[in-house]
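Per reviewer request, we include the raw input and output of the structure prediction for the construct analysed in the revised manuscript.
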Amino acid sequence: MAVSQPAFTRADPDERRQSLIEACARVLADKGAAGVSVRAICAEAGVSAGLLRHYFGGVSEAMAATYRWTGERIGEALAQAVAMAGPDPRTRLLAYVTANFRPPITSPDLLAAYVAFWSLTRSDTLVASVRAEVYGDFRRDLEALVRAYRPALPDARLPVIALTALIDGLWLELSLGNAPFTAEEAEALAERWLEALLPAAPTTTAAAPPP
């Protein structure tokens, strides 16, 4: 006869906190921001309903922690893509951009969680501050790669904003599913836009000496 598992088992405090964060991410992806509650998160994590308030001040704090954890996961995936690209600055920049069009970043569950986060940024100051933090980290990393590729560029701010808009749009379509383009086509578009935004500096040739 199968033995039923208890609803709560002892675990390391950090593990319990992390399990609540991951449960919150699943609830957000499945039910959206309106479906998130202390009871829903704890039920998803398989723990007693009072445990969440032991680690978080409330649902808002749990969602902010989940947003930060989600951003860190994306950052790790992007960093890994860049590390695998080798030393060439152009290849590293392209790896950072195009990794957004592949799993684990392109994901319906991740999109659903982000839609929930975005819906809260106007009403929840904790979530809004984490959004600023996550997007700030993303843009700083992208700008560092842009500057490594085009060190003579006088101002990288607008090219980075344009690249971010391109990434967001293509990622959104791919994550929704049934996009009118493939991941490979998204990567090709990104490469073409990259060259248009960051053209190579014109080479100057030395003037011929007078006869």
